[in-house]
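Next up, sample data:
>
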Amino acid sequence: MMSSWRRTVGNVRSFIGNSMGDLRGGSSLASWAVAGTLAYFLWVKPSQDLKREQEERAALSVASNPYRYVEKRKPIPDPRETGLIYGKRNSTQKLED
């Protein structure tokens, strides 16, 4: 009974050791610390900084004019401009240019 329990624990430990690159002791811990630090500074921190920056910009733009109009619906494109309907385009655009 006791030997099967020890064998199971040993198998679990060896599985974990093998899955971590078969490094033992301090070198394994150090390599995981380096990999975690690199991952944080290369992926996690830049995305957090970008999100924080976007939130600050949004807060500043809202604070600058709280009564400004915000478009809540996507504009419907003109079917003649997109080529869905053939025909004359708006002549007012040509006159303004």
User: Anything to note?
Assistant: Helices lie at 2-19, 26-64, 79-82, 91-96. Residues 6 and 12 are 10 Å apart (CA to CA). The radius of gyration is 30 Å.
